[in-house]
Amino acid sequence: MSDRGSTLKELRRLIPYYRASRLPLLVAGICALGAMMAGLTIPLVTQKIIDGPVRTGDVPGLIWLVLLVFGLGLAEAGLLFARRQLSAPPNNRAEAGMRAALYAHLQRLPLGFHDCWQSGQLLSRGVDDVATIRRFMTFTLIYLVINSTTIVVGLVIMYTLAPLLGLVVTVCLLPLVVSSYFYETRYRVVARRAQDQAGDLATTVEESVLGVRVLKAFGRGKHLRAHYLRQAADLRESGLRKLAVLALIWAVIIALPGLAIAAQLGVGAHGIATGSITLGTLVAAVTLTTFLTWPVESLGWFLAEMNSAAAACERFGEVADTAPSVTDPAHPERLPNPVRGEVRFEGVRMRYPGAETDVLSTVDLTLSPGETVALVGATGCGKTTLTSLVPRFYDVSAGRITLDGKDIRTLALHDLRGRVAVAFEEAVLFSATVRENVAMGTDRPTTEEEVREALRVANAEDFVDALPQGLDTPIGEQGLSLSGGQRQRLALARAVIGRPSVLVLDDPLSALDVHTEAEVEQALRRVLHGVTALVVAHRPSTVQLADRVAVLHEGRIVATGTHRELLDSSTFYRTLLSTVDENLEVTAR
C-alpha cells in the first residue's frame, strides 16, 4: 500500500504542468469513456438480435438492430479519434513546459549542484524521463482509468444479464488482484534502477565523445569500451528483470479472459440445456467478456507505464525540487550607474557543503577601481574558489564581498553578473557561430560593430575575418576547430562585450605555447584597460600585467604588493614562481 501511495504522490507533482490543460484532457477522457460505453452496448444489442429477430424471423427488426450496431461502431471509432486529437496537443505542451522548467531550473542551480551531478544523469532526466511522463499522460493514464471503469461496468452488465455467468468471470479475475500487488511492490524498484543505469550509460557515452582525443592519445578506447559494455550489460540485466516481473502478470492477465470464456461456455451450455439461460444471453456474455479482454490485458502494461512514470517523476523531482542555494535577495539593492568597480573581500571564509575544513580562511583583500590584481598561489590553495565568489557562483560561508560598498548578496544576480564578467581557465565555446559565441557575453541585443569592437579589444578580429564565413563561421562543438589561443581570445571578447566594471580571469594563459601566449598577453593588456580585474596567475608574464599581486597560501592572503616588491620581500613568492620559471629572478631583474 505504501508503494502505491508513493506512486500516486510522485504522479501528483505533474498537476502544475497539466493544470492549464485540464479541460481538454477531461473532455478527452469523456470521449474515451463514451467509446468504451458504445463498445459495451454492442453485446446487449447482440443479445436482442439473437433472442429477437433471429429467433422470430423478424427481418425488418433485424435490419434496424444491425444498423444500430454499425452506428455504435462508428461512434466508438469517432470518439477514439476525438480523444486522440484532444489529448495529444496539451500533453505535448506540458512535455515542452516540463523540459523548459527543468532547463531553466538547472540554470538557476549553483555550480555546487553541477559539481555533484553527472551531465548524463541530467540529460536523461530532461529527455527520457520527461518523454516517459508524456507517454503516460497522453494514453496510459486515461485508459488506466477508463479500462478499470469499463471492467467494473462490464461486470455489472454481466451480472444483469446472468448472475451465474458474472460470478464465473469474477472468480476468474480474482488472481489479478494478487498479481497486481506483486507487480506494484517489485516493478517500480527495477524500473528506477534501469533508469538510473541509463543515465550512467549516457554519461559514459558523452564523456567518451568529448574526450575522444584523450582516449586515442593514450590508447584507452578498448578500456572505455569494456567499461561501456559492462554498464550496457547491467542495463540489459535490469531490463530483463523488468521483463521477468512483467511476464508473470502478463501470463496471468492473458490467461484469465480465456479461462473466463471457457468457463462461461461450459456454464452457459448447461444453462441453455436446462432453459435457465437463453442463447442470446450466452452470446452476449461471451461477446462482453471478449470485449473486456483488452481492458484486462492492458492493465499489466498500464501498471508498468504507471510505475515507470512514477520513477521518472521521482527522478525529475530530484532535480526540480532542489532549491537553489544562491538566490536573489527579497529586496535587492541597486548599483549606481556607472559602477566604480571597487571590490572588497572582508573576512571571507568558504567551506564547501559536506567538507570538514575551510578552503578559504579569513581572506581580506581590496581591489581599487581600475586596478588589476594578480592572484598567485600553489595548486589547491583556493584561487579558483576565491574568483568564483565574486560573481556569486558560490556564496561565502562567513564574511562578505562588496562591490562599491554593497554586499553582493544584496544585489540581484542579473545586476551583479551584468557588471562582473568572467573568463575561465578553459575557454568553453558552444556549437554556434563566432558572432553568437561572442554575443553570449551580454543579454542585450548586439550590433555587428559591437561584436567587432570586442574582437578588436581581444586581438581576435584578424583571425576571425580569415575564417571561411567570418563572424558567421560555425566553430563546432567546444570550438575544437580553433587553436587554443584563438579560443582563449574569443573567450576574452565574450567577457568584454558587455563592458563590465569588474573582470575575473582564471589563469587565461594556461596551457598556451610561447607564441600563442604572446598573442593572448597582448589581448589581455587591452582587455584589462579601465576595468577592475582579479586575475589568477601562474606564469610570470601574467603576473607582470598586474598593478599588484596577492599571494594566497593555505586559504589566506599572506602577502600583497607589486611584483618587484614581492620578489624582494617574500621568499615564498620567489619560491612559488620559480617552480614555473627557474630563471625568474634573472629575467625579471
UniProtKB/TrEMBL annotation:
A GO term for molecular function: ATP binding
Subcellular location: Cell membrane
All residue ranges annotated as the ABC transporter domain in the record: 343-579
Keywords, in A-Z order: ATP-binding, Membrane, Nucleotide-binding, Transmembrane, Transmembrane helix
Transmembrane segments: 21-42, 62-82, 141-159, 165-183, 243-266, 272-294
Protein's membrane topology: Multi-pass membrane protein
Top-rank taxon, per record: Bacteria
Keyword Transmembrane helix among UniProt keywords: yes
Positions of the ABC transmembrane type-1 domain: 26-308
CDD domains found in the cross-reference section: ABC_6TM_Rv0194_D1_like (cd18543)
Keyword Membrane annotated: yes
Pfam families in alphabetical order: ABC_membrane, ABC_tran
Protein name: ABC transporter ATP-binding protein
Organism (species): Allokutzneria multivorans
